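Course assignment 3, question 2. Fill in each field.
Student: A.L.
Task: Predict the tertiary structure for the chain below.
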Amino acid sequence: MSTVHLTAVRLGGRPGMPLLVLGPALGTTAQTLWAPLAPELASDFQLVAWDLPGHGTNSMVPDHPITVADLAAGVLSLVDGMGEGIHPPTFHYAGCSVGGAVGLQLLLDAPGRVESATLLGTGARLGNAAGWEDRAETVLDSSTEALVPTAAERWFSPGFREHHPGRASSLLHALGDTVDEGYAAVCRALAGFDLRDRLPEVAVPVLAVAGARDVSAPPEVVRAVAEGVREGRLVVLEDVAHLAPVEAPEAVARLVREHALGPTRDQLTVAELREVGMQVRREVLGAEHVDRAMADATELTREFQHFITEYAWGGVWNRPVLDRRARSMITLSALIAGGHHPELAMHLRAARTNGLSVAEIREVIIHSAIYCGVPSANVAFRIAQELFADEF
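Answer field:
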């Protein structure tokens, strides 16, 4: 397996937010396929789409045959280049068509890197080898321009081009501008792609999204993915063909967000919110501490324990945009300022669970000395020293 050169296109959000990597359909670009829904997701994710060889911003065309596994390795290389630490970053993934096929390959080749996967208009096997070889030859003989008329029929549901001429025109122009050799190389990668026998190995949660009018990846093909992986769910979008991110950007954005981050607060019942909060609370503070606090609750304090579980842990700590590391740093500063020493000790331990190093905790306390007062920082250092005596 080799790594294929891919190019990244940033579509919104900022570093520090959960990373969502967006994969393209064959003949489309990062910009034309994913820009319509980027505004819907930019407040929750750092959005990074990528371009296939010979597509959009990626002028590099491989001089050797490539596979879908090579494209998946290229995605990992792209993400690794964005990392700032020694640990390769994890990410959420959404991909359409061949981008979805790459997503499936990632779930097999690097399952520990992908937190969730939304796969649109794709399958564990797309078409057949002879068909892809024929299309590659057609493009090399007549250019990608020859595919535009049929793409217009396959990509869009009836009436879409008339109601959204700008979006449709941008996509069809991008197809015509695609480098012939790059398009053909991806066709031949798909000719050898078949993960049907390996679907039961996929353990990462998968949301499989089909367009009811998609003839390239009909709902039954997408359904096989949802039913074949260990934890899958199928959603079929009515009046949508092959390019759901363009035809139904709001619906796709909502599905991606909910699958990656869970439902928003106003979509949860009180019982569900409490359950989510309990899970987060146990993950951050430690199951032993939380179980003891709940067991020690009296008739007087039980409702308070429920309240903080729902509103602090199920609400604030479970919001997107800031990760748990950032929330730990904010919490430590607030507790230092307020002089809440027992809570500070508890959240110093939690900060380590959330990935803060002792050196980072030291910097938080030093920073707090300026804005919260030196005496408060002195007390914080004494508490931290007791907790991390071997490391401070």
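Instructor remarks: The mean pLDDT is 90. Residues 100 and 119 are 5 Å apart (CA to CA).
Grade: pending
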